[in-house]
Amino acid sequence: MPRRRGIMSDRLKYELAQDLGFYDKVKDGDWGNITTRDAGNMVKAAIIRAEKMLAEADQLPQR
Q1: Which residue from 13, 44, 46, 55 puts its CA 20 to 30 A from 38's CA?
Q2: How far apart, in whole angstroms, are the C-alpha atoms of residue 17 and residue 15?
Q3: Angle formed at CA 10 by CA 59 and CA 3, multiple of 5 degrees
Q4: In terms of Cα–Cα distance, which of 35, 5, 2, 3 is closest to 21?
């Protein structure tokens, strides 16, 4: 069965890994070195970031 294409860009993943303190584990491109907790925290941070962006976009005046 083919793998689904990821939703998060690689740039975002590395940015979040750096923010969350486990960039050193993934800097070589091997995401298998992170813990389940790290992966969950990364998803949570991505959701928070997306919600914040949506809230900010909602505050912009309509044209």
Answers
A1: 55
A2: 5
A3: 110
A4: 35
* Contact between residue 7 and residue 14 where contact means Cβ atoms under 8 Å apart: no
Q: Which amino acid is at 24?
A: D
- Tokens at residue 8, please? 């998060």
**Tokens 């928070």, located at residue:** 48
Query: For every one of its 63 residues, what pLDDT tens digit does the chain have, with 9 covering 90 and above?
Result: 566 677 889 999 999 999 999 999 999 999 998 999 999 999 999 999 999 988 888 876 665
What pLDDT was estimated at residue 8? 85
Question: Among all chains, which residue has been given the structure tokens 């992170």?
Answer: 34
Instruction: Classify residue 31 by its DSSP letter.
Output: G
Nearest-Å Rg of the Cα atoms of the chain is: 14
